[in-house]
Write a structure and sequence with these properties.
The protein has 153 residues and is of the alpha+beta class. The chain has two helices and seven strands; from the N terminus they run H-E-E-H-E-E-E-E-E. Strands 1, 2, 3, 4, 5, 6 and 7 form a seven-stranded mixed sheet that branches. The N and C termini lie far apart (62 Å). The model has no long low-confidence stretch (mean pLDDT 92).
Amino acid sequence: MGAREDCLRELLAARACERLVLDLVHRLDLGRPASVAELFTPGGVWEWAAGGRRVAGREEPAAYFGGRPADRLSRRPATNIRVTVDSPDTAHATSCFVTYRVDGHDPGRLVPPPPPADAGHYEDSFRRVEGAWFLAHRRLHLAFGGPAPRHGA
């Protein structure tokens, strides 16, 4: 394989990994939260650096994120996604996020914007399995955090 093909392969791998980060946020905020488990390898892990929380495999993340309150409204801008391709089948990345979240949301009413509930960054590792990229490990680092406010409270 020539240098041009190597560059193209690396570019496509980096874009696929970046897309996983964005797809995950989209599923949490605008899709089906439990479906984020589909973006992980079967043995994938999502852990929180503080507090010892950890979900692994596909069943635990599906249950964890699928158990979010039905009246929770959230939006997570994901920025500064920096992917490094390590090999044809592995990569890692960091990305920053801010979460705006409110519980007690009524879809028929506009909610005044709350302050951010948390902000931090992720450290992700990716693995290519049978030609498709998946998250293998996600570690959440919170710089700022607090409880979700309840709308109307």
